Amino acid sequence: MRGKSPSLSPELAAEIKFLWESTDMNQAQIAARLGGINQGRISEVVNGHRFAEVPPAGSPSHA
């Protein structure tokens, strides 16, 4: 039986975008760092298919 990966939230999407934009980490490394989120979900976030309206964590428009 496969384990369930964590659900994506706007906060997690913001963290994914921050890591993607501010580090040299690839999508698989980000997935592993954030607790085993599926790499496909990381791809959806960084390519704007999910949570497109959420800015990266730490940006002035991120509350």
TrEMBL record:
GO terms assigned for molecular function: DNA binding
Identification of the protein by name: Uncharacterized protein
Taxonomic source organism: marine sediment metagenome
